[in-house]
Amino acid sequence: MGVRAVFLVGFMASGKSSVGQELARRLDWDFVDLDARIESREQETIPQIFRKRGESGFRLAESSALRDLTESLERETVVSLGGGAFAQPQNLELLQPWPSVFLETPPDELWQRTLRDTAERPLGKDRTEFARLYEQRLPFYRQATVTVVTSNRDPAAICAEIERSLQLWGSAEAAGSSQISPDHSGTGESQ
Question: Does residue 56 belong to any structural domain of this protein?
């Protein structure tokens, strides 16, 4: 295939971790959840980091963990990024050489998922703020290499679409181009 890593991006509760684990299993790749990696490095949970250092302190830890990860990839890896990681300019720049997949889900569906989720989400407590944050981050997510619409689709179908996109990426890379055209159609086919 030629691709050594893929980064899943999207808003909180978009399924990055569950799709990422399934995709890694299907490809026989490693899986890394960046938030879990941050917690391990910092010896604190994400909510604790937010409480003690604020969002800016968390973003510094997040960028540092992402930089270390991209510099130390030894095996093919699927990486699930936190909801705000791809909205940070320094992270976008760092991820330019790698394919990224935006798991697009309507904000109302995301809100409903967060209500059912037991995870503590420091930036997901107020519906108005939730919607504002989604709209603020959406232009960044749209810069991903590929967009996959996830509504009413099971992880297997989502993973199959991502796999097709990775094959296109690998083909473009082998032909001497480091990028495929961004696909925002949700079909997994290049425009």
Answer: no
- Could you tell me the CATH number of the domain that includes residue 154? 3.40.50.300
CA 102 – CA 167 distance, rounded (Å): 17
Confirm whether 94 is domain-assigned: yes
Residue bearing tokens 């480091």: 178
Angle between helix 16-27 and helix 155-174 axes, rounded to 10 deg = 60
What are 1-14's pLDDT values in tens digits? 567 899 999 999 99
pLDDT for the residue 189: 37
Counting the structural domains of the chain, the total is 1
Model pLDDT for residues 99-117, shown as the tens digit of each residue: 999 999 999 999 988 888 7
With respect to residue 117, please indicate whether it lies within any of the assigned structural domains. Answer: yes
